[in-house]
Amino acid sequence: MRVLFAGTPAVAVPSLDALVAAGFDVVAVLTRPDAPLGRKRVLTPSPVAARAAELGINIIRAAKVDAGVTEQIAAAAPDVAAIVAYGGLIPRPALDLPRHGWINLHFSLLPAWRGAAPVQRSLIAGDDVTGAVTFLLEEGLDTGPVFGTLTEAVQPDDTAGALLDRLSHSGAVLLTQTLSAVDAGRATAVPQQGEVSLAPKLTLEDGRLDWKQPALAIGRRARGVTPEPGAWTTLDGQRIKLEPVRLRPGGPALQPGQLALDGKSVLVGTGSHPVELTRVQPSGKKMMTAADWARGQATLESVVFE
Prior knowledge:
With 306 residues, the protein is of the alpha+beta class. It has 8 helices and 17 strands.
């Protein structure tokens, strides 16, 4: 079966590899254009583009699937399109090209967390279980009928990055199984059932920690926005980036945002019990341990995060 693969970030690469390893004829890859990265803003291929080049697969780079891109897809003559975090909408003319349609691997248990940041929003909300589904792509936002589902328990120290990495590998197996079933004529898609929730793309502001919130909510948010856009707070008007915090129930009573030393640990007050800082990155400096950062503060007890 001829497959068009659409994807952009690193979490899509395991699916591309799995389809190639399973013997599917991946005739082209659709991915976002090269983007400037790093301080020098060097134009860099997407992880999917880089892997497709290594595999010798034709690459279609496009930020938008317009008429010209649709013609390129038609020229590839795919029987099915597999899409994993491409990062753009697929309009009806392109959706109608493959005879088996577009099959999307999505990292949530639809209809929960429809949108661009399902794993991140799931962690922030405190879900105990998440997962991934394969579904038939429609013009609506992640509304299509579901082919297959897998579940994944959320671990207490999971960040969005760690959880996405696990789901990218188990999801690659699910996607390959789904396309094999489609190829064999055994696939059945069933309508989504359950309560709908939305997972819009995270902004920088989503990473800001509100110290008036309970410690549990702060911990969930910090893990949900790691590695991107990253958890942060402010001190004297300067933004400070934080790696995920540890919960410290039973710690000393502190006001929200108030800092204190407990042995070698750096604690911050919240709306409930304190949390422990792990690593801190002040503006213009490298990430460092919280203890090293604290040593640079004249009187830590007078420091209050805003």
